[in-house]
Design brief:
heterodimer, A: 467 residues, alpha/beta, 5-stranded parallel beta sheet, 45% helix, globular, B: 457 residues, 6-stranded mixed beta sheet, 46% helix, binds iron/sulfur cluster, NifE (chain B), nitrogen fixation (chain B), nitrogenase activity (chain B), NifE-like (chain B)
Amino acid sequence: MKGKEFVSTRNPCKLCAPLGASIAFRGIEGCIPLVHGSQGCSTYIRRYGISHFREPIDIASSNFTESSAIFGGGENLKNAIANVSKQYEPKAIGIASTCLSETMGENIPMYLSQYEASRKGESGGPAIFYASTPSYSGTHMDGFHQAVFAAVKAFAGKPDENGENVQAACDDQPPADARKKINILSGFVSTEDLREIRDIVESFGADCILVPDYSESLDGSSWETYQKLPEGGTKIADIRNMNRAAGTISFDVSAREDRRAGLWLEKEFGVPCAPLYLPVGIEQTDKFFDELSRISGNPVPEKWTKTRGRLIDAYIDGHKYCSGKRAIVYGEEDFVLALSAFLDEIGITPVVAATGAKNPQFAHCLAAASPNSREAPVVADDSDFETVLSIAQDMKADLIIGNSKGYHLARNLKLPLVRAGFPVHDRMGGQRILHLGYRGTLSLFDSVCNALMQAKQESAESGWTYI
Amino acid sequence: MIGILEERKLQVFENGKDSYGIECGKSSAAGSVSQRACVFCGSRVVLYPIADALHLIHGPIGCAAYTWDIRGSMSSGPELHRMSFSTDLQEREVVYGGEKKLYAALTELIAEYRPKAAFVYSTCIVGLIGDDVESVCRRVERETGIRVLPVHSEGFKGTKKDGYKAACDAVFKLMGTDDETPVSPFSINILGEFNLAGETWIIKDYYRRMGIEVVSCITGDGRVDEIARAHRAKLNVVQCSGSMTSLAKTMKDEYGIPFIRVSYFGIEDMTKALYDVAARFDDELITRNTIDLVSDEVGRLLPRLEKYRANLIGKKAAIYVGGSFKSFSLVKALRHLGMETVVVGSQTGSAEDYEYLKEITKEGTIICDDTNPLELSSFILNKGADLLIGGVKERPIAYKMGIAFCDHNHERKEALAGYEGMINFAREVHDSVTSPVWKFSPARIRARISPDQGGAI
Ligand code: SF4
Ligand code: SF4
């Protein structure tokens, strides 16, 4: 069924690691991403991010030249840190390596300690942390998880032998009435999703430490003056406190174990971690709510019970449009898993589930995600859009769900494309599509039904007004 | 005003106030958020529109993923250029070398897509691991019988300009391999027109009406076979001189084809382009055709511009584009709309370019080389610009500061060249500048309340 395998990638269904890292860094308050390598990478990442988020995304680069590629980029990195600190006055600098600097074997931690040593005596200055993100061994999602992990480790880690860790300074006594907080590792979701998660957690009467949180920094209001680093983002002080939270919920089931900050917090500090699927669909959202209820000790607030009720009502109203339909889903692993579970729940069989990442967990997680489907989906990890197209040709699918990059697929197969995920750069509002929770599910459900209804209308000879 | 990085002080100039020569052509300061890309970017954007060629990017996935469909570059036929092919190097190739994978990728892709030629772009990492791309290309060329051209575009080995040069070298290698069909004595190549939104077709139509044969357009709506016979044309007409002058020079040295520089943006420059070409041929019929064409087009254009102009008079514009040649035309085109340029800069301008900009702009105009978002936003506010002309990376800067925007770069979907393009340009600028939404912009409101603090950041 799967056509000839190609050695080359033809229309990639993935991006490179520093992109994921840069987005995650932008979700930390006052943090500027600094990509260590040549200039093109950071400029391309900016351009790409800008077309989805429609916001300025300043990402610095250490701007390798030929000689830095030969003699090492230490000087570039140190100058870059100094320059970017001067110009942007950031609270933190998140450094991501590139293929180039990784291949050269750049010892970034060493450069950083040299830099620190060179400014002994000077106080202040941004906190600097680093994520290793070579793209030849992972996708933008690996970069994303790696960056979140790096931030958590840097700020919530144990003080080092000198007791000098940044964490120590902030570890003052919590106020006596401090409520226990809940860590949420959100995964790569939309800005509206982030806001929704926060709303949900807070509605349980709990405080939420959401990492990363680019809901404002990458989807803010119009400005009065130019902001070097837009407001918003997880506060570093909050990240410091993650190691004594009541629990962690992490939406990263498909990520590599050694990149999951939640598991690390559990191991190092005993903060219990519940890895969940992204809460799309009733079943997965229920699990999220149950977990919140358990950790916070509070029942599910009534407003959500009502929303859930409306969602069920909508499912029933719309079930005939969906039942027996077949869908193609692609994108980041966790995203595809969540969407597949949701589709399965509304009677649509995900017949193709594809991702650009090479991920051994993927097939396994997917099988668990779609128990109702009569037919097992073709699971295509390490895939690209041309491969998806060749698989999809004879799948008799009815619709496609995924990011804008599937546009050619949709055009080729003459199928409706429900846009979701990242990037959505050919529609307005792509950055704030709501996918998560009962409300997100409801809006996805409506979009799916409407796409199917429109397709039916358009293909019907006489046209229908009531459908 | 924000602090300009020490290294960059001489790259920013205020007309009438400063007196030094603007520094340019140097690499961006480490840690700056430059709007520039890399060598690879330069090569890729130049070769992009060759639609019947295979474009294979040798490196890890990012470079290919980010340039997939980055240019609209329309084609009247094949669309192979709009696919993104990459060897997607993985750890093992980084360690053991990527030649095998490159060979396998090329062979399978050529068999599958049967392109007329193939370009292989080397990205940063390939330069570092030292793959012998040349020999792989030669081997595949031998085995498949099509031209397989390496493009040396390792990102760190210079600037975007070096990428242009690498692209020109590759294109040049295609020339001289055609079937020798003769061309008209009145024939040209169009260089540096990329058909982003169908402009090539507009320009080609003008030349056709003048009685001139266009042998090839390099590279807009490009075809390998046309490029192969480009060396037969009698004149090269170079737009976007930054990217194409090196090719024009090589063609002059090797084939004795003279070249002239033109720009197709704005009324004067468009008209001058046509007249300059006509003058080169010194033929009565062509001259008459050209006069007719110009008077016809301009005659129709001017009244149509009027309604836009009426609302734009007195507004101020900022320009930040890739190539400086384009900025000259834009300064003039804006003048036709009654607008004055108060900030102008480019990623890759030369010293002479900046001198020329000093001449054609007014006192107080800021001229800058390789700027960044912080500077640009501060210049815009400081000079009270109503409009920014730039590319996708500049767009959010304009919008956040509450000013209008016109995309004049890779991703635009409006044809802005030629007389028709001038109308589109006017309409786009007009529609953005006069939109009622700006009245809600906090930055705008603030500027209105305190005009003298407009630029204080
Ligand atoms: S890796 Fe090199 S060639 Fe690719 S985008 Fe980055 S700088 Fe450019
Ligand atoms: S070199 Fe690596 S990090 Fe840079 S753009 Fe290419 S894939 Fe991404």
